Amino acid sequence: MRNTWKQGLESQHEEVSDERLPVEGSFPSWLDGTLVVNGPGVFEVGDRTVNHWFDALAMLRGFRIRGDAIRYTNRLVRSEDFRVASREGRVRRALPGTPASGSALRRLYLSLAGGFQDNPSIGVVRLDDSMYAVTESPIGIEIDPHTFHTVGRRDLTAGLDADATLGHTHVEEGVQWGLAPSFGRKSAYTLFRREPNEPPEALTRLRFGSHPPYVHAFALTERYAVVPEGSFGVDFGDLLRGVPWGRTFLDAFERREATPRFHVIDRETGARTAAVPTEPFFVYHFANAFEADGTIVLDCVVYGDLGAITGLTVENLRSDDPDVPRGDFVRYRLPLSGGRAERETVYPGPAEFPTINYAAVNGRRYEYAYLASIDRGSLPTAIAKVRPGTTETRRWSRFGVHPGEPLFVPDPNGDAEDDGVLLSLALDSRAERSVLFCLDAATLTERARAVLPHRLPAGFHGQFYDADDPQRLMQ
Ligand SMILES: [Fe+2]
Known about the structure:
Layout: E1 19-20, E2 23-25, E3 32-42, E4 44-45, E5 48-49, E6 57-66, E7 69-76, H1 80-88, H2 104-112, E8 123-127, E9 130-134, E10 139-143, E11 150-155, E12 170-172, E13 175-182, E14 187-194, E15 201-209, E16 219-220, E17 224-229, E18 232-234, H3 236-242, E19 253-255, E20 261-266, E21 272-277, E22 282-292, E23 295-303, H4 307-310, H5 314-318, E24 328-335, E25 342-347, E26 351-355, H6 358-361, E27 369-373, E28 382-386, E29 393-396, E30 401-402, E31 407-410, E32 420-428, E33 433-440, E34 445-451, E35 462-466
Antiparallel strand pairs: 1-7, 2-34, 3-6, 3-35, 4-5, 6-7, 8-9, 9-10, 10-11, 12-13, 13-14, 14-15, 16-17, 17-20, 18-19, 20-21, 22-23, 23-24, 24-25, 26-27, 27-28, 28-29, 30-32, 31-32, 32-33, 33-34
Bound molecules: fe (ii) ion (FE2).
Fe (ii) ion (FE2) binds at residues 122, 168, 216, 284-285, 460-461.
């Protein structure tokens, strides 16, 4: 088998509704809820292919799971970007790596008018009893949690002085913690909290001038929020000068002059407790963070260069010999009373999509993280379970299978942190089908699989919502 990953980077236009899936093995009888995974669905707009992995039109993959009874639905998200792309064959607003269609004047107008994409391919979030597909945009696209149809839109920046909110957010017992960027010559990130059915409350505003770091996610401990100020980001002066000629966020990504740091913010007061300098870095995703002996322990997948972003072009990922950016899973220790961050590698990459038993241990001292790991090509080829602070590692892989993000779902009757299962939507390249795998999280052995009626492109992030307690967010 050669270049098996390419199947995971091709469009799927077919939509399936509420189809019962054949199951091999046995899903746990306690598993009762809805798994929703977001990610790329279609890579073409009109007669062109979008440039970057993050530009593809979003598709939701929904699974209603009750033990071995698994019903599958997939839906392309009916955003405005999707509507214009499918009806008119044009890029409505600039995507991260693909310029808006039209003349230089039109692009300039769109950038000055502050027009943002609404194609939400990063993840899903549940706020105020509604489900939204989200990305780095002011708009959340509301999704019916049963049919996965698009039913509405919501301005997620309402009540905030910001241009967008991040696709990654935290929700603890219904309370959302988020970051809201303001872009331009006076860029900033606003940390906010939002009680259910209340307007957001801005806690603090981190200001970065015209060349802010790109921030994809942040971490919470019980007391602090940790916001990464990495080494790379969009130079907005450069971007605005180039927009009329088709310059994109991706083109304007450049190394920053400022010392990279981790900002530690008190969640109660919004005060910045520390700004801990470190070596050049870039982070998409955090596994977890917690306080320990005057430091913050911070576990994440870290990259060393700009390739973390520029290496994710569709052309590179689809190529025979892709140059895949290498993210290592590392543990930082951030001293709160001065000094630089220390860093040790927990699991050498390329690896991504770190997850934990979120409901039980997010922000707290913990034992286990789960990762998707790449051995060859551009998509994951294994799932790894690691124990930061030790060399213990378990791995699961199947020939020709490309697993996606491993989402941990706890066993309600379990005691241990790893009592539960991992759900991972994978591509079985030999069968040219996607497969939902269920692994025992303690042993990393396969319990069950449900085979989909078609092949899907590789996804990004998902959530599992328990039927009895949908507010108990998993990641
Ligand atoms: Fe992400």
